[in-house]
Design a protein that fits this description.
Blueprint (H helix, E strand, L loop, with lengths): L18 H7 L11 H12 L5 E5 L6 H16 L3 E5 L2 H14 L3 E3 L9 H4 L4 E5 H5 L16 E4 L2 H10 L3 E4 L4 H18 L1 H9 L5 E3 L2 H16 L5 H4 L2 H4 L6 E6 L2 E6 L8 H4 L3 E6 L6 H7 L3 H5 L12 E5 L1 H4 L5 H11 L5 E5 L2 H6 L6 E3 L4 H10 L4 E5 L14 E5 L7 H7 L8 H13 L9 E7 L1 H7 L2 H5 L3 H19 L4 H13 L3 H10 L4 H4 L5 H18 L3 H16 L15 H8 L12 H15 L4 H14 L21 H9 L7 H10 L8 H11 L6 E3 L1 H5 L5 E4 L4 E6 L9 H17 L5 E6 L16 E3 L1 H18 L9 H10 L4 H8 L1 E2 L7
Parallel strand pairs: 1-10, 2-4, 2-5, 3-4, 5-10, 11-16, 12-14, 12-15, 13-14, 15-16, 19-20, 20-21
Antiparallel strand pairs: 6-9, 7-8, 8-9, 17-18, 18-19, 21-22
Helix pairs in contact: 2-3, 7-14, 8-9, 8-10, 14-28, 22-34, 28-29, 29-31, 31-32, 33-39, 34-38
């Protein structure tokens, strides 16, 4: 006889909304006996906000946020018996979450690429679904297929800042010329004529296949071509490049951007239309998780996170920050301790410790093979990481792996970041060079660097030496504004790195020995070093932990809402939203774009009472206003084209990197009045580490090779001007007319045509261009003296070429001499921080190095000579 009383349901006395009780009820493994204090604090805070749709949780690496998120999701699943989903940026992290769930005694299943259906238990709300962002967000996601149609009740977005890039990829069409030549040619064929008419120089380079020739299609041209482009792309809808994206962009192409180079095309919305992803947009609860980074405006702009959640993140009070990192930039101690020196040093260190190198490309990674490193860049990452943990590998170089690689404890004691991470695509690289974009690519690059630095230290008890090398990376991290945008712990560690540089310079003996000894003291657990670290980092964390950037989050909210309005056919409302946020922020008022849904939490009230909300009184920078006005102009173009182009002129006035409107008038600039020494000191003050100025020169030298492509060389000439206190400009790029470069001093200007690609005598066309450039200059600045200069290998024109009278030539020898003078000047300048210098003293140093305006013509250039055939 069956005893049915054994199977009678009894209402459980367990309150699943009580996370601590729920955790206690789990059938856990011995590795997960109890919760740590930060985990308890996080779970209690999450329970207090259980009714909120969006919540942001920030916990340092190694404090167990995966456990917190799993218990949190499990409570929703147990309460509702509805599906819940845990999102990860990579498949490696999916595996780690599944293992963590098993250790906790929580049922979780992976939902992998090419799997058509999730597990039955997951659909029934009896197992947590764990998958990548791409699985949920792609335009043909199985979540949205009719036979699945799964909208999760609750979502966790782990490592949400990394996830943003995965989401952006789901809305981006990338067309590589070599891989998809037919599609590339079809799209370029639509764009070329009107774009080449608008900006002939760069589009001629694109037509010829120059990878360095990059341009964005202006919105007034794009708007006219949308119908034709839609037909062109529709005919390729089944291609790999479009298949998982086209469903999102097909009806929203008007509000996409298009960035083109000679080798690639990218089409993407500036803000992903995440409201089209039903399985994300209709989730009842969304938990955005990240490490303790300072900028959460991207969560609002890109993912539509509630701005109130971003302004009031949960951050456990007992979270002590990440583990111990001794950050060393040897080239800031001495330029001779460059990348080559670091490579040789790592070969030696790999005999005692496990050394891992993160590089931005396969080419860079392969160079480490020469010093004994194993290169990993394929699908064997998991096996390589396991080999490092076991000690069967001791020296590995990864290519483009800044996340998904966790190297705790002895798996990595020396971590090298070799050069700047590359962008995530053509648009990302293009945007990085455009100032003023709120929360744009610049901050995404900062995040990737910080991600890379965190690969080797995975708990508060962990430690490692992190070595920064490559002039581009070292220069980037030496800038004050970059350091200030990083998380509190990383910021403190980089500030401590500045002190380490000074300490190394103060030590007796060689600088090489000083750097090696400091690294050894960290790795051998020297008591003095540990005490020094505690005083320089751990005790400062509370004072460095900043509040969320109210201004940037509210600007992000406005941009997101404006894009949504445009996608729902209300571009007039879009323009109004942008204008409202510009007006209110410039007036020092917080934009009130929507009513608050919730009563402020205690932490938010304290945040407001501390006066941090008053940061809205800080108006956005002029360059940022320029960017926002360009957004407004784009929306306005839908209903008033004349007004839109007028707005675009204003945007261009405020930010010279915005599109030049068609038939733009020449704007007469104010004559430079600042003394060269003052210009130099303002630039120098932008570095948190004085030696960053030298690092910037080292990075710039590669651009100033006469073998560089013209676009790179011209940018190098622009960047060089500030080193000697001149005002630099690229008129041809900015105004679509004029010279390639201008160097301007209060006394006069150099009008420069860059012809570094010329191997022989200068042809007629070069003379005509310099003559036209001088005419442009005289029209713009009729009262200023201009010296015509051509940067070229040859000093001789062909017999039929005519150049302006008094033309000077900047040859490779002259440019090399100039760079040596600048290096000598900087060597003296960096001996003291900016505040210690007087303008008159710096001016004397410029004069002594022959870097004042009066020296340039005779010291660094030669006159144009007659051709032998003339």
């Amino acid at each position: 006889m069956v005893d049915f009383t054994k199977y009678t349901d009894e209402e459980s006395s367990l309150d699943v909304s009580d996370p601590l009780a729920l955790f206690a009820s789990l059938d856990r493994k011995t590795s997960h006996v109890g919760l740590r204090e930060p985990q308890k604090e996080a779970l209690i805070a999450l329970a207090e906000r259980r009714g909120a749709r969006d919540v942001v949780l920030k916990m340092s690496t190694g404090f167990g946020k995966t456990t917190v998120a799993l218990v949190h999701l499990f409570s929703y699943m147990e309460e509702t018996r509805r599906p819940v989903v845990y999102l990860c940026p990579t498949t490696q992290l999916v595996d780690q979450v599944i293992q963590e769930a098993e250790n906790l005694g929580i049922n979780a299943v992976a939902y992998r690429a090419r799997e058509k259906h999730p597990a039955t238990a997951a659909i029934a709300g009896k197992a947590i679904i764990v998958c990548t962002y791409d699985k949920l967000f792609n335009a043909r996601s199985t979540f949205g297929r009719d036979d699945v149609d799964l909208v999760p009740h609750a979502l966790v977005l782990d490592d949400a800042h990394s996830g943003i890039q995965e989401v952006r990829d789901s809305f981006t069409i990338r067309i590589e010329r070599l891989e998809e030549e037919s599609l590339f040619d079809d799209v370029l064929g639509v764009l070329l004529a009107p774009c080449k008419d608008y900006a002939p120089g760069v589009w001629l380079g694109i037509e010829r296949g120059d990878s360095e020739a990059v341009s964005e299609v202006p919105f007034w041209i794009w708007a006219q071509l949308v119908t034709q482009l839609r037909d062109t792309l529709e005919s390729h809808a089944g291609d790999d490049e479009l298949r998982f994206v086209w469903g999102y962009l097909r009806n929203n192409l008007r509000w996409c951007r298009c960035v083109v180079s000679g080798t690639a095309i990218e089409i993407f919305p500036d803000i992903p239309a995440v409201h089209l992803v039903r399985q994300f947009a209709e989730a009842k609860h969304r938990l955005f998780m990240s490490a303790t980074l300072s900028d959460d405006s991207a969560l609002v702009r890109e993912l539509g996170c509630d701005p109130d959640a971003a302004l009031d993140p949960i951050a456990p009070p007992s979270d002590g920050g990440v583990g111990e990192r001794m950050v060393l930039a040897p080239s800031l101690v001495d330029p001779s301790l460059d990348r080559e020196w670091v490579m040789k040093w790592c070969r030696k260190m790999a005999k005692r410790y496990r050394v891992v190198v993160l590089t931005p490309s396969e080419k860079a990674a392969r160079e480490w093979e020469e010093v004994g490193a194993t290169v990993e860049m394929g699908e064997e990452v998991k096996a390589t990481v396991e080999a490092l943990k076991k000690g069967t590998l001791s020296f590995v170089a990864f290519a483009q792996r800044y996340d998904g690689v966790d190297l705790p404890d002895d798996a990595c004691r020396v971590l090298v970041l070799d050069g700047m991470p590359v962008g995530q695509g053509l648009g990302d690289d293009y945007d990085r060079k455009v100032p003023g974009r709120p929360g744009g690519a610049y901050r995404r690059w900062i995040y990737r660097v910080e991600q890379g630095m965190g690969r080797a230290v995975r708990s508060q008890a962990d430690y490692a030496v992190v070595v920064l090398t490559g002039p581009d990376l070292v220069n980037f991290l030496a800038k004050r504004d970059v350091v200030e945008l990083m998380g509190a712990t990383t910021r403190a560690q980089l500030q401590l790195s500045e002190r380490l540089t000074k300490i190394a310079l103060d030590q007796g003996g060689t600088l090489t020995a000083a750097v090696e000894n400091m690294a050894s003291q960290c790795l051998t657990r020297d008591a003095g070093w540990k005490s020094f670290y505690d005083s320089g980092v751990r005790r400062k964390l509370k004072s460095l932990a900043g509040q969320p950037e109210d201004l940037q989050i509210r600007l992000a909210e406005a941009e997101h809402q404006a894009q949504y309005a445009a996608l729902t056919q209300d571009s007039e409302r879009s323009a109004e939203i942008i204008q409202e946020v510009i007006h209110r922020t410039q007036q020092g008022k917080a934009p009130a774009l929507k009513a608050k849904k919730e009563k402020p939490t205690k932490s938010r009230q304290a945040h407001d009472q501390d006066g941090v909300r008053s940061s809205m009184g800080s108006a956005p920078a002029e360059e940022q206003v320029g960017w926002l006005l360009q957004r407004k102009a784009n929306y306005t173009y839908e209903f008033n084209q004349a007004e839109a182009l007028q707005i675009q002129k204003t945007a261009r006035d405020k930010n010279s990197y915005m599109y030049a409107p068609p038939n733009a008038v020449v704007i007469r600039r104010t004559k430079p009045t600042s003394a060269s020494a003052s210009v130099v000191l303002r630039w120098y003050a932008g570095f948190s580490n004085p030696n960053g100025a030298l690092a910037e020169l080292m990075a710039l030298k590669t651009k100033l090779s006469f073998d560089a492509k013209p676009e790179i060389f011209e940018q190098g000439l622009l960047d060089l001007a500030v080193f000697f206190g001149a005002a630099g400009e690229r008129p041809e790029k900015l105004y679509l007319r004029g010279p390639d470069n201008l160097w301007e001093w209060p006394e006069f200007s150099w009008v420069i045509e860059a012809k570094n690609e010329r191997m022989k005598d200068l042809p007629k066309s070069d003379g005509e261009q310099l003559l036209a450039a001088m005419e442009w200059f005289k029209h713009r600045d009729p009262e200023r003296a201009g010296i015509p200069v051509v940067a070229a290998r040859s000093t001789s024109p062909r017999h039929d070429a005519f150049f302006p009278e008094g033309t000077r030539v900047l040859t490779p020898e002259g440019l090399g001499k100039l760079l040596k003078s600048i290096e000598q000047f900087l060597g003296a300048l960096v001996k003291q921080p900016p505040l210690f210098w007087k303008v008159e003293d710096v001016n004397k140093m410029l004069e002594g190095s022959r870097l004042t305006a009066n020296h340039f013509e005779k010291t660094y250039t030669v006159p144009l000579t007659k051709s032998k055939g003339g």
